[in-house]
Design a protein that fits this description.
Distance between the termini: 75 Å
Shape: elongated
Oligomer: single chain
Number of helices: 37
Structural class: mainly alpha
Number of strands: 5
Radius of gyration: 49 Å
Length: 974
């Protein structure tokens, strides 16, 4: 219903609107709305009808007693069928109140209306839930995942309600109550501030002592009370200093240090991880809470250094990761804020030692954590400390040395040295269990060594160093059967290539080949090609871990794309070299002449492809032979590009470069054939792409020949003459004739067997694949030349039939006939030869000849009778029309004479049709030339020719009728 609404709406809209497409769209939209509305209304009506039928069926079922099953068979009649399927308006019969069998449809199926449409599906027609089979199972609902806010709420709920909920809630309420008590007492002035703070401190101490005494009986209660006591003591000291000024900063600082030390001691004594975390949180917060804005950063960092040394001592005994993270984030967050807000260059000498100490502490903490946390797969690695420490530490270090020349580069070298030294030490002493940590440190050391390069050098040198570094990392990973160095090497080479792309177009020396971007690009390409060579044996050896298996599968498909990218990158570097601008004496100028640029670029590609082909054939590396298949496209593009630059193949030094390129191309074709013959027998089963390369080589020769002819036209300054207009056609005719005479000699298998390469086995590629487009070009080019060229033969005079245009047309028809004969005689016949053997092919050639002969008269009228070479002037000229009348009559006469002699009745009829056209033309066109001599000549000449035809070439008899002898004089009717 909806589809029909869209269809008819679109039809009506398109027919009634001025804009067809706009009416089509609007009508379809209105039809959609109408269809939806109608379907909704119909569904509502059907739902109401169904409820009515259910009510009536239920009433009838209650009123009718159960009936015995009928024994007589039911007759199949139209009346019975109507009873089983009543129309929509009929009242459904009452159904017996019998329980349906499990495999039968519910009773409603007997009374529901049968509607032959899929659009009337409505929930009202579904089986009620109470009547559905018991085997139906509702589909499970889609799983839902909590949001981050829900996750945080769930975690807080779990802490509050998990374990001893009453204790935790009570402690929380007590803490809040003590805070309120202190505030209320301060407002009411009931007790002195000192007394209130002492009372709160005593409560905290009592919680701490009582919790410690319960450490054996109730460990969970003990730690909770001790943590609350530590928090209360911290709060008391902070309030005494910050809120009420009762103690000086130094005593307050000392008290908080004592509280932190006491808490750490209790945590170690009880092996209480949470208590230590609470203690150090308070310890790191102490200087922030007690800060007055005028303190010394040296004192701050010295205090943090003591806290971190304490964390390092605990890390030596315990693998408390959360405690390490508390020290890590607290230290670097505060240090980062100080660096952003307060650091000045004169602070460097005092800040640098602390930063070095912090970095070394957390590196040591990551090593101790790995040592104290063994797992089934080796020691665990804290990724936050392992990778966060160098990233944040180097970021702070970069800010410290930002004003020092090469300071960041030396800092990167220092970081790299530290991590490489640690990796070496773990390699010697850590054993297999520390393998993962050692690899992480090795990757970080290599990364910082890599980072030092762009901080000290420009982007071009960075790309080279990174490429060599990536190549070395890949080689090490391959020798040691480790996937991480190989992955790092691939990543480094990829990043180096992207960096180098920015410098490809940079201007350099005005001398050829003296461009760093070229050699840097070649180094990058060499790195990629070496990696591709190593990856050809993928999968490479690896450790067998899950990540190694994943990377091995990725490596298995990288050899081919890596080689293609490397080869393409080398060619891109060479392209930018041949087309770049150099700077000399402050002026920008092309390094290579514009005429030489296309051929230089092409020659670089061809040489590189030839080297790759030689290597691929020698090392049995299949992908290395692929670029040689693209030699021909490079040659064709270079030839067209060269023509656009106004250069020619016979100019120096282009002819030498083209000679080298074509020689390498022929050598590559021979190598590709030999490579294919080594794996496929017989050699005649060469793939299509090899045939295409041979065919395309003929097209390249056609382009080169046309370019040489254009050079002669350019030298003689004949661009506006007919000599220039026949260049394309003559070059195509010459190559097509050469293909027919050379490759046509091997058009049969027994002839090919006597020939050498390339005719055996590629002769069909030349006389069929290559010749077919050239034949089409010759046919179309001859038509275009005949209609458009006026035959300007300056500096020579125009001579009919002996001028470049008509000679080219004649040669075109001769070569097309020669090619058709070669194709028809070939065995096995190429696909196009079947059409060439039909009568349509000679008709096409006859049509070309007819057009060419007609345009000869046009050029004669133009040169000898002064008719302008314009379509309207030629058509309106009675000289032209008279000549056409005579010419067409002569053609008709020749056709009819030939048909009469060979008894070809259809050909005679064709000549008669052409003669009829002449007569019609005389009446419609030539007759309008009142008083003109041309009209007289036309009528006389046509009349005489028709008499001659009627006398010498009457209509041949039908094939089934006997010839009738008659007097020739009586056959001519007046």
């Amino acid at each position: 219903m909806i589809l029909w609404g869209i269809f008819w709406g679109a039809v009506v809209g398109a027919l009634t609107s001025y804009d067809f497409f706009q009416g089509l769209v609007y009508g379809a939209m209105l039809g959609l709305a109408a269809g939806l509305t109608l379907r909704r209304a119909l569904n509502k009506w059907l739902q109401a009808q169904r409820k009515l039928w259910e009510t009536e069926a239920g009433t009838a079922r209650d009123a009718t007693p159960p009936a015995a099953p009928a024994q007589a068979p039911r007759a199949a009649s139209a009346q019975d069928n109507e009873r089983r399927s009543p129309p929509l308006e009929a009242e459904p019969p009452a159904q017996p109140d019998l329980a349906p069998l499990p495999a039968m449809a519910p009773p409603e199926a007997a009374v529901a209306p049968t509607l032959a449409t899929a659009e009337l599906t409505d929930p009202a027609w579904q089986i009620p839930a109470s009547r559905k089979p018991a085997t139906e199972v509702s589909a499970p609902a889609n799983p839902t995942y909590p949001s981050p806010l829900d996750g945080a709420f769930t975690a807080a709920k779990a802490w509050l309600l998990g374990g001893n909920t009453m204790l935790r809630v009570g402690l929380l309420i007590l803490f809040i109550g003590l805070a309120f008590l202190a505030r209320q007492a301060a407002h009411m002035g009931l007790l002195p501030v000192e007394l209130r703070l002492v009372a709160i401190g005593l409560v905290g101490a009592a919680l701490l002592v009582f919790g410690f005494r319960q450490r054996l009986a109730k460990p969970g209660l003990s730690l909770t009370l001790q943590g609350g006591g530590v928090a209360v003591l911290y709060l008391t000291v902070f309030a005494a200093f910050k809120l009420y000024g009762l103690i000086d900063p130094l005593p307050a600082f000392g008290l908080m240090v004592i509280i932190c030390a006491l808490s750490c001691a209790l945590a170690l004594l009880q092996n209480a991880h949470s208590l230590a975390v609470a203690a150090f949180l308070g310890g790191f917060a102490t200087p922030v809470l007690l800060s007055t804005g005028g303190g010394s950063h040296v004192a701050l960092f010295a205090y943090y250094l003591l806290l971190n040394l304490a964390i390092l001592f605990i890390a030596y005994k315990r693998s408390w990761r959360l405690l390490n993270l508390v020290g890590f984030f607290s230290t670097f967050v505060v240090a980062g804020l100080w660096g952003v807000l307060s650091y000045r260059p004169e602070h460097y000498a005092s800040a640098q030692p602390f930063l070095i100490a912090f970095v070394l502490i957390f590196i040591a903490a990551s090593v101790l954590y790995a040592r104290n946390t063994p797992t089934r797969l080796g020691n665990a690695v804290d990724s936050t400390l392992v990778f966060g420490t160098p990233l944040i530490g180097f970021g702070l270090q970069a800010g410290l040395v930002a004003s020092i020349p090469f300071g960041q580069a030396f800092s990167a070298v220092g970081f790299g040295f530290v991590y490489l030294t640690l990796a070496w030490a773990l390699k010697r002493r850590g054993g297999v269990s520390s393998q993962m940590l050692m690899e992480c440190f090795l990757a970080l050391g290599a990364g910082f060594a890599t980072l030092a390069v762009p901080l000290a050098l420009d982007a071009r040198w960075v790309s080279v160093v990174w490429a060599l570094e990536g190549l070395g990392a890949f080689w090490v990973g391959m020798r040691q059967a480790r996937w991480m160095p190989r992955a790092a090497g691939l990543l480094l080479v990829a990043v180096a290539a992207l960096l180098h792309l920015n410098g490809l177009a940079a201007r350099g020396s005005a001398h050829a080949l003296l461009n760093p971007a070229l050699w840097h690009g070649l180094v990058l390409a060499l790195a990629m090609l070496l990696m591709a060579w190593w990856l050809r044996a993928a999968p490479l050896p690896h450790s067998g871990s899950r990540w190694a298996e994943v990377f091995a599968r990725l490596e298995s498909g990288l050899s081919v794309p890596m080689f293609l990218v490397g080869f393409g990158y080398a060619c891109l570097a060479w392209l930018t070299e041949t087309t770049r601008l150099g700077t000399a004496n402050g002026l920008s100028m092309p390094v290579y002449a514009e005429a030489v640029q296309p051929v230089s670029t092409m020659l670089g590609w061809v040489v590189a492809a030839a080297v790759a082909l030689w290597l691929g054939q020698k090392k049995q590396w299949q992908v290395a032979t692929w670029p040689a298949r693209a030699m021909l496209p490079a040659l064709l593009v270079a030839c067209l590009w060269q023509g656009g630059q106004g250069a020619h193949v016979l100019q120096w030094p282009l002819w030498l470069m083209w000679g080298i390129a074509l020689t390498l191309h022929v050598w590559a074709l021979r190598r590709l054939h030999a490579l294919h013959s080594e794996t496929v027998e017989p050699a005649t089963d060469a793939p299509r792409w090899l045939h295409a390369l041979h065919a395309g080589s003929a097209w390249l020769v056609c382009l080169q020949l046309a370019d040489a002819l254009w050079m002669a036209i350019d030298a003689a300054n004949l661009w506006r003459s007919s000599w220039a207009s026949v260049v394309w056609l003559l070059s195509a005719v010459t190559v097509l004739a050469g293909l027919c005479l050379w490759a046509g000699r091997a058009h049969r298998p027994e002839h090919r067997a006597l020939r050498g390469w390339p005719l055996n086995p590629y002769a069909p590629a030349y006389y069929a694949w290559a010749a077919a487009p050239l034949a089409l070009l010759v046919f179309i080019g001859a038509l275009w030349l005949a209609w458009t060229s006026p035959g300007d033969t300056r500096p020579l005079p125009y001579v009919p039939l002996i001028n470049p245009v008509e000679i080219a047309l004649a040669l075109s028809m001769v070569v097309l006939l020669l090619w058709r004969r070669t194709m028809v005689a070939a065995e096995p016949r190429p696909p196009l030869a079947h059409w060439l053997a039909t009568p349509q092919a000679p008709l096409a050639l006859a049509a070309l000849g007819f057009v060419a002969l007609n345009t000869v008269w046009l050029r004669v009228a133009h040169h000898f009778f002064g008719v302008p070479w314009r379509a309207d002037a030629l058509f309106e000229s009675f000289v032209v029309q008279t000549g056409y009348a005579i010419l067409w009559s002569l053609l008709a006469m020749a056709l009819m004479l030939m048909a009469h002699r060979r008894a070809l009745r259809p050909w005679w009829m064709a000549g008669a049709a052409l003669q009829a056209v002449v007569v019609v033309k005389l009446m419609l066109i030539d007759l309008s030339n009142a008083g003109g001599m041309e009209r007289t000549v036309a009528f006389i000449a046509v009349g005489v020719l028709m008499l001659l035809v009627g006398y010498f070439a009457p209509l041949p008899p039908k094939a089934d009728s006997p010839p009738v002898a008659s007097d020739p004089t009586t056959e001519v009717q007046p």
